[in-house]
Structures are given as structure tokens and as C-alpha cells.
Specification:
Layout: H1 13-26, E1 35-36, H2 38-45, H3 49-62, E2 65-68, E3 72-75, H4 80-104, H5 107-123, H6 128-144, H7 149-169, H8 175-179, H9 183-186, H10 188-195, H11 199-218
Antiparallel strand pairs: 1-3, 2-3
Helix pairs in contact: 1-3, 2-3, 4-6, 4-7, 4-11, 5-6, 6-7, 10-11
Amino acid sequence: MMLDPISDAGQTLADQAYDAIVLAVLTRGIELGSPLIMDQLAASLNISRTPVRDALQRLEHEGLVEQRGRRGFVVRSISDDDVRQLYQAREAIEGYAARWVAVNAEDEFFERLETIVQNAQDALDGSVLQSYRSNRIIHRTIVEAVGNSYLTANFDSLWGASIAAVAYGHLFLREVEMQNQDIVGDHKDLIASLRSGDARKAGETMEAHVQDGLASNLR
């Protein structure tokens, strides 16, 4: 496997190694089920083994990679059924968070959320990684609003595993979709439902939004 060498970009080496591996999986530069050998990754990235190990341990915690043997890792393989179960779990967590937000969140939260959505749109550069990040931060902001650390931790785990689901479904291989993604428009109805104060409506809208992602990954 070949990855582009990384350089200081205001991130730690471990964070840059993490991003490089995620990008390679999303674009199928590293295939699902592939072994991840620390020495090879470190050589490709032109860094030591330590930040690569830290990145792999983070990815293991998030569910994208799993250990094989004492020192080896592989990218988690995934099936249609795995993808469906992952999105069912996302519906449960994010649907609950949407219902909570609709009833409990203040105007200040919605103003911050709308700013985050616009900033995510402005940050898009047509790259796979930025598209993934932009969508994740919006959904995480909604879950974080509940103030339940267990809920947020499960969200993080599901979104880590969803990298494999995205790669499995080739969603981010369509370059035109990435360059023309309308994050503001895609989340307009969701934010309106959250602002409505109607818990049922907010939950159903979020669940439908998540189901759209499932449909994209299985098509």
C-alpha cells in the first residue's frame, strides 16, 4: 500500500496518520479486509511507528480496524447486513438526540448549529475526507447537545465504523457529487424539524435523513 508522505499541517503526526489512513480507505486505496502493517504505513508516510500505532489504536476504538494477532491490524470487512445494522443503530441514537433537541434546546444552540452547517459548506473542497468530516461534525453537534457522554461515545464508534460502510458503498467515489454537495440544503429540513419543538417530527425527520444515507451505501 502506498500513502503520500505527510508533513506538518498544524496537526500532530498521529492525527495526520489517522487522516491519511481514513482517506485511503474511503477512496479504496486500502481495501476492506486489507492487513495494515505498521512498518509499511510508517515508511509510506515518512514518519516513525509511534504515531502510526496511535492512529491505528484510535481507528480500532472507532471500529474501522481490528486487531489480528499480537501486533497486526486489518481494515474491518463489512457486508450488506452490517451496513443495515450500523444505520439502524445510528437511527436509534440520532433519532433520540433529535427528539431531545426539539424539546430542550435553546435558540442559542440552533444559531450555533446553523453556523456549523454553513462553515461545513464553506470548508468543502471536493475532497473525500472533508466531505466526511463536514457531515460528521453536524450530526455530532446534535448528539452532543443531549449531554450524555455514553451516547456521544457510541455515536463516535458508529461513525468510525461507517467509514467502512461508505467505502463499501463507493459513495465518495463520485467526484461530481463531492464537488457539488449542498450541505446546507441537505440539512435544511432537518434543522427546521429540530426548531419546530415537535419531538415526533424531529425524530422522524432525522431517521429519514439517516435512511437516505443507508440507501446511498447500498445502491
